[in-house]
Specification:
- The chain is an alpha/beta fold.
- It has two domains: about 240 residues, Aspartate Aminotransferase, domain 2, CATH 3.40.640.10; about 140 residues, Aspartate Aminotransferase, domain 1 (Alpha-Beta Complex).
- It contains 16 helices and twelve strands.
- The strands form three sheets. Strands 2-8-7-6-5-3-4 form a seven-stranded mixed sheet, with helices on both faces.
- Strand 3, helix 4 and strand 4 form a beta-alpha-beta unit.
- Helix 3 runs parallel beside helix 4.
- The longest helix is centred in the C-terminal third of the chain and has 22 residues.
Amino acid sequence: MSKLIYLDNAATTPCAPQVVQRMAEILAGPGGNPSSHYSIGYEAKQIVEDARAQIAAVLGANPAEIYFTGSGTEADNWAIKGAALAGARRGKKHLITSAFEHHAVLHAMQALQRQGFEVTYLNPTPEGFIRPEDVQAALRPDTALVSVMLANNEIGTIQPVREIAQICRAQGVWCHTDAVQAVGAIPVDVNQLGVDLLSLSAHKFNGPKGVGALYCRKGIALPALLDGGGQEKRRRAGTENVAGIAGAAVALQLAAASLEEKMAHQAALCDYVIDRVLSGIPQVRLNGSRHNRLPGNANLSFAGLEGETILLDLDMQGICASTGSACNSDSLDPSHVLMALGLPEEIGHGSMRFSFGPQNTMEEAKQLCDVLEQISPRRRAMSCMWLQEENTARVYHLKGEH
């Protein structure tokens, strides 16, 4: 097999060499507990605090506003469930989110519904955006939190979070954004966004898996999600992952230092694939807007085909991609994100997400297109769905063609 082509960077990214080196140095060291009161404990504590300051600097936050977690999912759960509990103490048990959030948000909301909270789910536009005016219309006197992701993890559309946060601030409602796909991929400044809570995860920007963080604006008093020791100012119990936290800080600094170059590079690869596939393969549509999306995201639907079949064919050619969120890869249901856009199941089942990273090359983008142009007609020739004259997916595509 030729060299592996990894085009699933939205699922996870490889650790940068500098990150691996920094983590190895710490793991090979004395290994003190940051809560221990002797020299190597103080050294470990300093590593954590230095990393906190470094991450805060990239986000435009104060170091005291950064709390480390074990994942972006934990950060989302803490923000949403913590805000809900804090709101309930004030008689506010209404929450607002979008219908195409990551499952870390949606499932947290559903868990709260089972506890008696009421949740309003806003539908995106057909191009994949949540409208600020819809948020405004959904607000109620008992609304405790609005949670809208900064960039969608499947179709890459960047949401108007700044405008949404302004609406929330004017009404005294807390605003959270799941920025897991955005941090390290586009500029993210908490002050410019104006949000109260923001979640991130290191493995999305060439850092280690198992390290996340929650930005919690000064003055926002979230109850602890985990009970135990006094770590993270008694708000997140559990011994800190010192090496992982340090690695996350290195990764985010590296991403921020090369962000403009990285964005331009990934956008060039993504644009090439989108243009060539849409022009070279019949009955393919781009999901989400062509504009105002993550530079490395291309989500394409192939009418008459199954995404899982395409995925297997690509894997046989040494190309890694996905049919949607890696966190829902075991489900045979069509993407809830695409369903929220109003696409029929036939389109949803035939969708692929190609997500590019700084390590990818134009040669890899061209090879992807070569393979797609080879497998699409062959698979369609075997597809009953494609051969049906009144195929729903094909008819839909012609109505919504990009």
